[in-house]
Design goal:
Helices cover 49% and strands 10% of the residues. It has 272 residues and is α/β, with parallel strands linked by helices. Strands 1, 2, 3, 5 and 6 form a 5-stranded parallel beta sheet that branches. The protein is globular and about 50 Å long. Bound molecules: zinc ion. The site of zinc ion (ZN) has 5 residues, from loops.
């Protein structure tokens, strides 16, 4: 076990003990659904500080090769990694691996988490990634009325704007399920996927890694979850292997130019 990890674990437990009494004294309304945001943010900040300490202990790394707008996914091997259901404190580790690999990705955030972690949403965009909407609380949208859907979309848009100054331009329906009404109210391209390692089901880094690298193809859109530690552990290997096969890691908008708000996308050029 690395020294920084032991330190991280120790400080996290110490921090949790410090914060727990305060967290319990919060009014009940502040604790509903978000699982103690103040607690989560404090822990996330501790992790970030420790991640920085870890960086200081390592050898200086070469500057990552940044993806530029000149990537032509008609000619190059592109792949769009996407991460759903965040942002959470686990997103920090995902961002760190992407940065090391010079990779860009797309995050589909849920409103509840945007409300709990606006600072992480801002970090996602500031590192050149793309942020889309994924509903407020991940319910099956085809059971909502038009008015309920409109409320859901406008609230998530407001939360993202308050967090980042930008509004979502892409939408991924929870569970990949939608109907005509969802598509109409979304007024955004619906982004589904062509590669699904089912990381939420196995929660196993080895299986997530194997399934992604076996199914990867140029033009693929890969769905994963940035709220899962197992996915965070799988990601460095996924990036390394696919990079060695010549892939460029791009956002959905970089891979698919001129996205149409009335379309549903499962892959990019040459993908299937
Ligand atoms: Zn989801």
């Amino acid at each position: 076990m690395k020294r920084w990890f032991k330190t991280s674990l120790g400080l996290t437990i110490f921090g949790a003990l410090l914060i727990a009494p305060f967290s319990n004294s919060l009014p009940t309304s502040a604790q509903t659904k978000i699982s103690d945001p103040i607690f989560d943010i404090a822990i996330a900040q501790l992790h970030l500080q420790l991640a920085e300490v870890e960086d200081e202990e390592q050898e200086p790394e070469p500057q990552p090769e940044l993806v530029t707008e000149s990537v032509d996914c008609q000619l190059e091997k592109c792949i769009a990694l996407t991460f759903d259901d965040g942002p959470t404190s686990n997103t920090y580790g995902i961002l760190k691996s992407l940065k090391k690999a010079g990779a860009k990705a797309t995050f589909f955030a849920i409103g509840l988490q945007l409300r709990a972690h606006p600072e992480i949403a801002q970090l996602v965009l500031s590192q050149g990634h793309e942020l889309g909407g994924h509903s407020y609380d991940h319910r099956k949208l085809q059971y909502l009325s038009r008015a309920e859907l409109e409320r859901d979309f406008s609230y998530v848009s407001k939360l993202m704007f308050e967090a980042t100054g930008e509004r979502p331009e892409l939408f991924r329906p929870p569970f990949g399920e939608y109907d005509d009404l969802v598509q109409e109210v979304a007024q955004s391209p619906l982004i589904l996927w062509s590669v699904d390692p089912k990381d939420w089901l196995t929660r196993n880094p080895d299986e997530t890694y194997e399934r992604v690298v076996q199914a990867a193809k140029p033009g693929a859109i890969v769905v994963m979850h940035d709220n899962l530690a197992s996915t965070r552990f799988a990601l460095p290997r996924i990036l390394k292997t696919l990079k060695s096969r010549g892939y460029r890691f791009v956002t959905v908008s970089e891979m698919i130019k001129d996205l149409n708000p009335n379309e549903v996308y499962r892959s990019g050029p040459n993908g299937n």
